[in-house]
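Pilot study result, target chain (288 residues):
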Amino acid sequence: MTALIAVPTLCCVALACALVRLPRKLHPSWSARLLVTAAVAAALAVAASVGVVAMAYTLQLAPHPTLHLPGARLVVGHAPVTPALGLAAVAAVSLMAASALRRIRLIWREWSSLSTGRQAVIEADLPLAYSVPGRAGGVLLSRGLRSRLKRDELRVVIEHEASHLRHGHHRYLLAGNVCAAMVPCLRGVEKSIRFAIERWADEDAARAVDDRRLVARTIALVALEGTSAAVPAFSGSGVLARVEAMLDDAPGGSDLAGATLLATTGLTTSTMAVPALQVHHWIASLPS
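Predicted structure:
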């Protein structure tokens, strides 16, 4: 095995972590897309690199004639994988797969509980607001929230949640959650994805109501109501930054955003090509 297989992987992880510091003037829709692309690239790169090491170690444990098959050395490499490294790679691959499946299962249960308990949410006295994806989904506002907010403030909440549904933000959150579960060092990227998505919905709400200060006031008001557990979209550690952003001018588009996204996608392809190329040559060289 050659250590060079880890270089593209490290580049992907470093890029994903660096994108956390995207400039605020970049529209959050681009920030969310770039962060998700980088996170998925990094997670797949880590999984592929560790998977090739695990495969190489597994080949070493195979019967001795297997190593003499044409192309088998492309996977095993000139230096054999040590038992410690091989077992660690096998354990890492298993742990990454289990963590990803566990996170997907938890998110699916959460979505299902919202869909089945929608009537309970609507009639609740607590201030609740959710966007439920799917054909039977929609924006859910509780009686408690409707009684606490004025009509224009309720419209801000509705437009915010509708933006989540319109742009499929649940898919961004799912991707960020799964990537962070697979690669723990991407948790900061997941947090930034969540913040960018909320900023994206804030900007959509501000454009719909044509009043940035109203959106800022609604975010602050709901947060001051102590609804951090009830309306997560309008509470949490990013509330102050979101309010400040809404009191500033609207962010514009960026000519560099598309190029950056393309570069990130290219990096993903090249990262996956390194381990995939080794496996491809080995499989293609097996006798038919």
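One observation from the pilot: Residues 13 and 254 are 24 Å apart (CA to CA). A full batch analysis is planned for the follow-on phase.
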